[in-house]
Design brief:
Elements lengths: L2 H13 L4 H18 L8 H8 L5 H20 L24 H8 L7 H16 L3 H6 L5 E2 L2 E4 L8 E4 L2 H14 L17 H12 L3 H14 L4 H8 L4 H4 L3 H15 L7
Antiparallel strand pairs: 1-2, 2-3
Protein backbone atom coordinates (compact mmCIF):
# COMPACT_ATOMS: atom_id res chain seq x y z
CA UNK A 1 0.00 0.00 0.00
CA UNK A 2 1.25 3.51 -0.85
CA UNK A 3 2.06 5.97 1.93
CA UNK A 4 -0.89 8.17 0.96
CA UNK A 5 -3.34 5.26 1.19
CA UNK A 6 -1.84 4.19 4.51
CA UNK A 7 -2.33 7.73 5.85
CA UNK A 8 -5.93 7.77 4.60
CA UNK A 9 -6.59 4.37 6.18
CA UNK A 10 -5.31 5.65 9.53
CA UNK A 11 -7.50 8.76 9.19
CA UNK A 12 -10.61 6.63 8.58
CA UNK A 13 -9.84 4.25 11.45
CA UNK A 14 -8.63 6.68 14.10
CA UNK A 15 -10.14 10.09 13.34
CA UNK A 16 -13.41 9.05 11.68
CA UNK A 17 -13.69 5.88 13.85
CA UNK A 18 -15.22 3.86 11.02
CA UNK A 19 -15.57 0.12 11.47
CA UNK A 20 -12.94 -2.18 9.96
CA UNK A 21 -15.17 -3.46 7.15
CA UNK A 22 -16.00 0.08 5.96
CA UNK A 23 -12.34 1.11 6.00
CA UNK A 24 -11.40 -1.97 3.98
CA UNK A 25 -14.11 -1.15 1.43
CA UNK A 26 -12.79 2.41 0.99
CA UNK A 27 -9.23 1.21 0.46
CA UNK A 28 -10.32 -1.55 -1.94
CA UNK A 29 -12.29 0.97 -4.04
CA UNK A 30 -9.29 3.29 -4.27
CA UNK A 31 -6.91 0.47 -5.21
CA UNK A 32 -9.36 -0.58 -7.92
CA UNK A 33 -9.47 2.99 -9.24
CA UNK A 34 -5.68 3.19 -9.31
CA UNK A 35 -5.28 -0.19 -11.01
CA UNK A 36 -7.86 0.43 -13.74
CA UNK A 37 -6.62 3.95 -14.43
CA UNK A 38 -2.93 2.93 -14.67
CA UNK A 39 -1.96 6.10 -12.81
CA UNK A 40 -1.17 6.87 -9.20
CA UNK A 41 -4.11 8.37 -7.31
CA UNK A 42 -2.57 11.82 -6.97
CA UNK A 43 -1.94 12.01 -10.71
CA UNK A 44 -5.52 11.27 -11.67
CA UNK A 45 -7.74 13.98 -13.12
CA UNK A 46 -11.51 14.25 -12.95
CA UNK A 47 -11.87 12.79 -16.44
CA UNK A 48 -9.93 9.68 -15.35
CA UNK A 49 -12.21 9.19 -12.38
CA UNK A 50 -15.35 9.67 -14.48
CA UNK A 51 -14.06 7.09 -16.95
CA UNK A 52 -13.63 4.63 -14.09
CA UNK A 53 -17.08 5.36 -12.67
CA UNK A 54 -18.73 4.92 -16.08
CA UNK A 55 -18.08 1.16 -15.83
CA UNK A 56 -20.64 0.83 -13.01
CA UNK A 57 -24.29 0.74 -14.06
CA UNK A 58 -25.81 0.14 -10.64
CA UNK A 59 -26.32 3.55 -9.01
CA UNK A 60 -25.92 2.24 -5.48
CA UNK A 61 -22.57 0.66 -6.36
CA UNK A 62 -21.60 3.86 -8.16
CA UNK A 63 -22.38 5.97 -5.10
CA UNK A 64 -20.41 3.64 -2.85
CA UNK A 65 -17.35 4.10 -5.09
CA UNK A 66 -17.99 7.84 -5.17
CA UNK A 67 -18.13 8.02 -1.39
CA UNK A 68 -14.68 6.42 -1.19
CA UNK A 69 -13.23 8.64 -3.91
CA UNK A 70 -14.68 11.94 -2.66
CA UNK A 71 -13.59 11.21 0.91
CA UNK A 72 -10.06 10.39 -0.23
CA UNK A 73 -9.57 13.55 -2.32
CA UNK A 74 -11.13 15.72 0.37
CA UNK A 75 -8.59 14.25 2.80
CA UNK A 76 -5.74 14.88 0.35
CA UNK A 77 -6.78 18.46 -0.40
CA UNK A 78 -7.27 19.34 3.27
CA UNK A 79 -3.81 18.01 4.12
CA UNK A 80 -2.14 19.74 1.13
CA UNK A 81 -1.22 16.46 -0.58
CA UNK A 82 -2.80 17.86 -3.74
CA UNK A 83 -3.87 21.32 -4.89
CA UNK A 84 -6.68 19.91 -7.00
CA UNK A 85 -10.07 19.71 -5.31
CA UNK A 86 -12.16 16.83 -6.66
CA UNK A 87 -15.80 16.53 -5.68
CA UNK A 88 -18.15 14.53 -7.91
CA UNK A 89 -21.91 14.70 -7.18
CA UNK A 90 -23.65 11.50 -6.13
CA UNK A 91 -26.07 9.78 -8.50
CA UNK A 92 -29.74 10.10 -7.64
CA UNK A 93 -31.11 6.78 -6.37
CA UNK A 94 -34.85 6.17 -5.99
CA UNK A 95 -35.68 5.79 -2.31
CA UNK A 96 -36.99 2.37 -1.33
CA UNK A 97 -39.43 2.71 1.52
CA UNK A 98 -38.54 0.31 4.33
CA UNK A 99 -40.60 -2.85 4.60
CA UNK A 100 -41.90 -3.58 8.09
CA UNK A 101 -44.25 -5.90 9.94
CA UNK A 102 -46.91 -4.93 12.45
CA UNK A 103 -46.86 -6.12 16.04
CA UNK A 104 -49.72 -8.50 15.27
CA UNK A 105 -47.86 -10.06 12.33
CA UNK A 106 -44.72 -10.60 14.39
CA UNK A 107 -46.54 -12.10 17.34
CA UNK A 108 -48.51 -14.38 15.04
CA UNK A 109 -45.24 -15.62 13.57
CA UNK A 110 -43.51 -16.30 16.88
CA UNK A 111 -46.61 -18.08 18.18
CA UNK A 112 -45.69 -20.92 15.80
CA UNK A 113 -42.38 -21.57 17.58
CA UNK A 114 -42.18 -24.75 19.65
CA UNK A 115 -40.89 -23.46 22.97
CA UNK A 116 -40.63 -26.91 24.52
CA UNK A 117 -37.17 -27.24 22.92
CA UNK A 118 -34.00 -25.27 23.62
CA UNK A 119 -33.73 -24.23 19.97
CA UNK A 120 -37.31 -22.99 20.09
CA UNK A 121 -36.69 -20.96 23.24
CA UNK A 122 -33.63 -19.43 21.59
CA UNK A 123 -35.43 -18.61 18.35
CA UNK A 124 -38.36 -17.06 20.20
CA UNK A 125 -36.06 -14.98 22.41
CA UNK A 126 -33.89 -13.88 19.47
CA UNK A 127 -36.82 -12.62 17.38
CA UNK A 128 -38.33 -10.72 20.32
CA UNK A 129 -34.89 -9.35 21.21
CA UNK A 130 -34.38 -7.97 17.68
CA UNK A 131 -37.87 -6.47 17.59
CA UNK A 132 -37.63 -5.00 21.11
CA UNK A 133 -34.17 -3.45 20.68
CA UNK A 134 -33.99 -2.38 17.04
CA UNK A 135 -30.50 -3.92 16.91
CA UNK A 136 -28.69 -4.68 13.73
CA UNK A 137 -28.24 -8.45 13.58
CA UNK A 138 -24.44 -8.04 13.83
CA UNK A 139 -24.91 -6.01 17.02
CA UNK A 140 -27.31 -8.54 18.51
CA UNK A 141 -24.99 -11.47 17.89
CA UNK A 142 -22.14 -9.59 19.60
CA UNK A 143 -24.12 -8.89 22.79
CA UNK A 144 -22.81 -10.54 25.94
CA UNK A 145 -24.57 -11.23 29.23
CA UNK A 146 -22.86 -8.32 30.97
CA UNK A 147 -24.40 -5.95 28.40
CA UNK A 148 -27.92 -6.44 29.82
CA UNK A 149 -28.85 -5.14 33.25
CA UNK A 150 -32.11 -3.97 34.84
CA UNK A 151 -33.97 -4.05 31.51
CA UNK A 152 -31.35 -2.00 29.65
CA UNK A 153 -29.16 -3.15 26.80
CA UNK A 154 -25.73 -1.68 26.13
CA UNK A 155 -24.75 -2.09 22.48
CA UNK A 156 -20.97 -2.00 22.50
CA UNK A 157 -20.22 -3.21 18.99
CA UNK A 158 -22.35 -0.76 17.06
CA UNK A 159 -21.69 0.41 13.52
CA UNK A 160 -18.80 2.86 13.58
CA UNK A 161 -17.84 1.44 16.97
CA UNK A 162 -20.14 3.81 18.85
CA UNK A 163 -21.90 2.61 21.98
CA UNK A 164 -25.56 3.23 22.77
CA UNK A 165 -28.00 2.11 25.44
CA UNK A 166 -31.60 1.09 24.74
CA UNK A 167 -34.39 -0.18 27.02
CA UNK A 168 -35.67 -3.72 26.49
CA UNK A 169 -39.37 -4.60 26.74
CA UNK A 170 -40.12 -6.92 29.70
CA UNK A 171 -41.54 -9.62 27.40
CA UNK A 172 -38.21 -9.77 25.53
CA UNK A 173 -36.26 -9.93 28.81
CA UNK A 174 -38.50 -12.73 30.07
CA UNK A 175 -38.04 -14.71 26.85
CA UNK A 176 -34.27 -14.25 27.08
CA UNK A 177 -34.16 -15.34 30.72
CA UNK A 178 -36.22 -18.46 29.93
CA UNK A 179 -33.81 -19.37 27.14
CA UNK A 180 -30.69 -18.81 29.28
CA UNK A 181 -32.13 -20.77 32.19
CA UNK A 182 -32.98 -23.72 29.95
CA UNK A 183 -29.57 -23.60 28.27
CA UNK A 184 -27.68 -23.55 31.57
CA UNK A 185 -24.59 -22.45 29.68
CA UNK A 186 -21.53 -20.71 31.05
CA UNK A 187 -20.68 -18.79 27.87
CA UNK A 188 -20.55 -15.00 28.11
CA UNK A 189 -22.27 -14.81 24.70
CA UNK A 190 -26.05 -14.93 24.44
CA UNK A 191 -26.85 -16.49 21.10
CA UNK A 192 -25.27 -19.90 20.60
CA UNK A 193 -25.66 -22.67 18.05
CA UNK A 194 -26.18 -26.34 18.95
CA UNK A 195 -22.41 -26.86 19.22
CA UNK A 196 -22.04 -24.10 21.79
CA UNK A 197 -20.41 -21.66 19.37
CA UNK A 198 -21.60 -18.13 18.61
CA UNK A 199 -24.64 -18.10 16.32
CA UNK A 200 -23.73 -16.96 12.79
CA UNK A 201 -25.47 -14.23 10.80
CA UNK A 202 -26.63 -16.83 8.29
CA UNK A 203 -28.22 -18.90 11.06
CA UNK A 204 -29.92 -15.82 12.52
CA UNK A 205 -31.24 -14.97 9.06
CA UNK A 206 -32.64 -18.47 8.63
CA UNK A 207 -34.37 -18.34 12.03
CA UNK A 208 -36.16 -15.06 11.32
CA UNK A 209 -36.96 -16.10 7.74
CA UNK A 210 -38.45 -19.40 8.92
CA UNK A 211 -41.05 -17.86 11.23
CA UNK A 212 -41.65 -14.39 9.77
CA UNK A 213 -40.64 -14.71 6.12
CA UNK A 214 -38.38 -11.66 6.37
CA UNK A 215 -34.74 -10.79 7.02
CA UNK A 216 -33.59 -9.72 10.52
CA UNK A 217 -33.13 -6.16 9.25
CA UNK A 218 -36.87 -5.88 8.62
CA UNK A 219 -37.34 -6.33 12.38
CA UNK A 220 -35.17 -3.23 12.86
CA UNK A 221 -37.49 -1.35 10.49
CA UNK A 222 -40.49 -2.79 12.34
CA UNK A 223 -39.07 -1.52 15.66
CA UNK A 224 -38.64 2.00 14.28
CA UNK A 225 -42.01 1.98 12.50
CA UNK A 226 -43.84 0.91 15.67
CA UNK A 227 -42.28 3.81 17.56
CA UNK A 228 -43.12 6.35 14.86
CA UNK A 229 -46.73 5.14 14.60
CA UNK A 230 -46.96 5.31 18.39
CA UNK A 231 -45.98 8.98 18.29
CA UNK A 232 -42.27 8.85 19.20
CA UNK A 233 -40.12 11.85 18.33
CA UNK A 234 -37.89 11.27 15.31
CA UNK A 235 -34.76 12.25 17.25
CA UNK A 236 -35.52 9.67 19.93
CA UNK A 237 -35.84 7.01 17.23
CA UNK A 238 -32.55 8.23 15.76
CA UNK A 239 -30.80 7.73 19.10
CA UNK A 240 -32.32 4.29 19.66
CA UNK A 241 -31.31 3.12 16.19
CA UNK A 242 -27.82 4.56 16.52
CA UNK A 243 -28.06 6.67 13.36
CA UNK A 244 -25.33 9.30 13.20
CA UNK A 245 -27.54 11.58 11.09
CA UNK A 246 -31.24 12.43 11.38
CA UNK A 247 -31.40 12.28 7.58
CA UNK A 248 -31.07 8.49 7.76
CA UNK A 249 -33.93 8.23 10.24
CA UNK A 250 -36.19 10.39 8.06
CA UNK A 251 -36.95 7.40 5.83
CA UNK A 252 -39.59 6.56 8.45
CA UNK A 253 -41.47 9.85 8.14
CA UNK A 254 -43.66 8.43 5.36
CA UNK A 255 -45.02 5.95 7.92
CA UNK A 256 -45.86 8.85 10.21
CA UNK A 257 -47.69 10.61 7.37
CA UNK A 258 -49.60 7.44 6.43
CA UNK A 259 -50.67 6.97 10.04
CA UNK A 260 -51.85 10.58 10.31
CA UNK A 261 -53.83 10.24 7.08
CA UNK A 262 -55.41 6.99 8.27
CA UNK A 263 -56.39 8.58 11.59
CA UNK A 264 -57.83 11.61 9.79
CA UNK A 265 -59.87 9.47 7.40
CA UNK A 266 -61.18 7.33 10.23
CA UNK A 267 -62.23 10.01 12.71
CA UNK A 268 -62.76 13.36 10.94
CA UNK A 269 -66.49 14.25 10.50
CA UNK A 270 -65.89 15.10 6.83
CA UNK A 271 -64.25 11.74 6.08
CA UNK A 272 -67.21 10.62 3.96
CA UNK A 273 -67.23 13.78 1.91
CA UNK A 274 -70.53 14.99 3.36
Amino acid sequence: MSDILAAFEEYLSVIKALDTQTVESYITDLKQLETQSSKTLLRLETVDILSFLSTFENKRTLNRKLSSINSFYHFCHRNDFTAMKIRIPMAKVPKNLPKYLSYEEIMQGVSLIDRTTLAGLRDYALILFLYASGCRVSEALSVQRRDIADGWLKIRFAKGEKERVVPLAPVAVEALEAYLEAAGMQSSNLWLNYRGGVLSRISAYKIVKKYLGISPHVLRHSFASALIIGGADLRVVQELLGHSSLITTQIYTHIQRENLAETMNRYHPLRNGS
